[in-house]
């Protein structure tokens, strides 16, 4: 099937194409918003039409016995392994966000009415590994994350391409952060241009005095887009950081809407982008402060380094504010590596490739070093090295 067949179709026609019942509320919302295109506000820099024109086989979840493992492993949308005693199960989900701005959020819920629920009990540290094995497949699944009040949990997320050439993955989190708790998600992803593509559509709902941290490290030459909606109640805090290292003709980045609803909420969002070849980086981010969100603190910034004259950064930080009692800022800068610093390093006998790497990793380290776990820092740096040297293998 081609997703382009869903373009401008009524609910009944979409249901027939996808082989599902027409009374699916998520599908109805998707049809109301329409299939994204380069004319869509959120997708205009990503231009998804080529992905939607591909022919895919729609995967069906194959329930398998869950093996005991130190990590949660989800293979093609099915849980195949999990730590002993962990609460992870399939269930229906009645809290779909009907106001989410992204059509793919609703389509992925329509395609996966049985979500994967993960209950993070206590002060847990959990590793979640996604594995994709099917070529030319449409792989769709949703994950619901919930933690406990007064607890602090961390989820480390990694991805593996095990033969998913020309597949499209639609997945994402519905994340509910309990009062007086902290939930951290650290995403580390390398996609090559001959592997799968991904659209990841997330939702964060932060309760009173809840803290959420989302750090994404996206690298390589493949195509992917992450879309984030976060809602902050009173005294909640959302800390988001995004590192892109892209090469070849990759198109990747972040579309986000952070909405301050309660008083005294705080959000910080920082993006660092390193673009080589003909890569296109995307940072299209809105912070919205409602009338009810007095005494908000909201800060947003994007910085980009272009390593090639063909590279392009689409940066659009935005503030939408309806009150006066707040502290807010946003900004964006784009530049190149400092030629004097490069010359200095080269004059010390360092090769051009290694000199470039030293400068860009120094730029990236301010985000990488925010990860408190030293082992995870090293894993992220190893992913960066792999992507960097793949781009310079002929240098």
How would you describe this protein?
The protein has one domain (3-336). The mean pLDDT is 95. The protein is an alpha/beta fold. The protein is globular and about 65 Å long. Helix 2 (25-33) runs antiparallel to helix 4 and helix 5 (339-347) crosses helix 6 (352-368). It is 19% helix and 44% strand. An eleven-stranded mixed β-sheet has the order 2-4-3-7-9-11-13-15-17-19-21, covered by helices on one side. Strands 1, 5, 6, 8, 10, 12, 14, 16, 18 and 20 form a ten-stranded mixed β-sheet that branches.
What features would you highlight for this structure?
alpha/beta, eleven-stranded mixed β-sheet, ten-stranded mixed β-sheet, 395 residues
Categorize the overall geometry.
globular
Compute the number of strand runs. Answer: 21
The number of helical runs is: 7
Uncertain ranges: none
Distance between the termini: 41 Å
Give the C-alpha Rg. 21 Å
Order of helices and strands: HHHEEEEEHEEEEEEEEEEEEEEEEHHH
Integer average pLDDT: 95
Brief description of this entry?
By secondary structure, the protein is α/β, with parallel strands linked by helices.
